[in-house]
């Protein structure tokens, strides 16, 4: 067991290790509950460390079998070992070798960190601090070593033996055993170590790098599922080519292996030459995966592959620098996806995620800077802020210095720091150098938490043909940071005249305008534009050029003008969102005042949505689907900010959807009928776009007329030639109480009974039903034979779908929703603290709820906190969530 009170680790306390580990030779003899690990470490004193210091190696729940220094067991008193560490009091002040044997029980490892078994396959997960569960080590990212790994296993149980680097040797052994030796020539931190051993089916091909080197790329999956790995292999090949073309980065080993396992704490892991994936981000066929699943697979395959340069070849000095690899790599995978599919539609989807996950985090008790300054449990810092906001900071950098200098800065970074463990400062210095700009102020984005709130006001002087823009920024306080200073905010902008034309930007004086980017770096800025001869609607923050909240206070006419005529597709979408959001927020107030949501007449924007559908629906259906999708209940809650009543939000949003569906019914019916049966199993982005619009049409029709919707959905459900259409129909049916819903759910269950990943969709659909019976339904489903608390995907499908996507039932006034999730967290925590603490974050907005919901949430959190023996992971989240500022 770990210690009771977690020590706090601080960035300010960083110092290099006193010893370096140049080489690691591992011999791992696998057996399900008795694995023997022999580690031979070549160490030497670190010239940058303290001479003569003791050596303290990290461990976590380890059992030591034997220990030797240069071939001999040192005398008692010279060293000491416990499950948590091994200390050598006075190591030699010259190169020396340690031989450490540990015994592991992979079958009993339910934390899914270190070496464990998943459906009979041996696999590892070492980031962030899992290697210390395999052997005693300097488990931190600034210790880089060359690894040789010999893996031995039963040949029948584990015909496939994979390690990092290149295969060196393999052979048979007596007693039905066999072995393989892998060698990774690239020095790496231990968090990138991996091995896999098991019975797996594979798809593979040869990728030839642009300099002509052949690489054997392969995807390994559960036996019988190789046909579902074809798409991932294709995405991998496209990722490799893209990184060559766009960033000039080539792959560097002879092989690249990807393994899919069914028990995995997160999405995937970038181990050098041996990526290990949650199988839900590998396996796909038209019958089992939705278009969203395909897009996620493509993005995550790319993400892990891109880590080979941003993360592996250049790694992090310490875990405070996590965004150095994660933010940058998310930026790279966003760009890749934008190039593979529609750029505008990808950007909209990415910003939706940013706002629904990161903005919420930034506004609550778990807010932290992109580069945190302290942590007690590093696993709790793999957050939307580090990943998604971290990616936005890289994007802003590109906007500020321009694409050519950005690429030059990346080239310099790769060139200068290859093989090193780096900091954010070293990264930024490369861009400062190539651009000649001082990025000190920009660097504040990494240290200051919170989402800046930008208020923009325009004034048009018709006589003088002058338009004046005033910008103000303010960042609300976050935990530990009561005072905030202004950020450098790139505001990409344009002006759309009342006639619909784009007005050229002619700023007065020394306005900080670079091209179409206004560099807004102080509390308040006023800029005057000349020759504005017609009333303009400002199109600000085009493409979402900065991760801020923007309040422009345009009237409906201005928003409608942008929706119709803006040349920036993101802002066209944003204008439609603003119009719908304003309407919903007004209705929420009306509902709460007891006036009901229905007001006479139909707002003008509904007509505009109809016009838009008629023109854009055929041209870019994916974009049209995004524009017609109402803001989510979470978006509305964020807009309202405090004293949240999820039932009123739900009702107001449904009212808008019904109104939209009624007003556009003829067009929606035609769209739904037109595409009927046309796309089948075509998984192209174009076909996915048509399906998105068609299924949105179904959804709106059902909102307007449940009877009509149910009939259409039922037909679609049975006729569907792909999972996207089938699941969309099931979602519509699930929202309508009665026999039809239960029949469809039963049919889906029968069809996919033996397919856990598909049953996850079935669990999630039911967990999201916004009805009071859902709590009982979820409790019932937890007893379903396919459900288990030990598989993170099952837990997320049922319980995270409930806590994150069913706000009316999770935040029930009687507290039953919170109690359900609290019970699950308490049951999971002893087995898998990482999954439990992530589930806890679903409570992060609890203080914004109205009474009595807020009190109910507090009661649930206090009940969890009172449980003795709670993991450090869970304690860390609870402490921050319950802190009174
Ligand atoms: N580095 C991984 C990625 O983003 C994610 C990761 C971190 C992870 N810690 C993990 C995955 C623990 C699984 C388990 O690409
Ligand atoms: Zn990553």
TrEMBL record:
Q: Which UniProt keywords apply?
A: Aminopeptidase, Hydrolase, Metal-binding, Metalloprotease, Protease, Zinc
> Locate the Peptidase M1 membrane alanine aminopeptidase domain: which residues?
231-444
All copies of domain Peptidase M1 alanyl aminopeptidase C-terminal, residue ranges: 560-883
Q: Does the keyword Protease apply?
A: yes
Cofactor(s) recorded in Swiss-Prot or TrEMBL? Zn(2+)
The Aminopeptidase N-like N-terminal domain covers 94-192
Which domain of life, per UniProt? Bacteria
Question: Keyword NAD on this protein?
Answer: no
Gene3D superfamilies the record matches: 2.60.40.1840, 3.30.2010.30, Neutral Protease Domain 2 (1.10.390.10), Peptidase M1, alanyl aminopeptidase, C-terminal domain (1.25.50.10), tricorn interacting facor f3 domain (2.60.40.1730)
> What is the name listed in the Swiss-Prot or TrEMBL entry for this protein?
Aminopeptidase N
Provenance organism = Camelimonas abortus
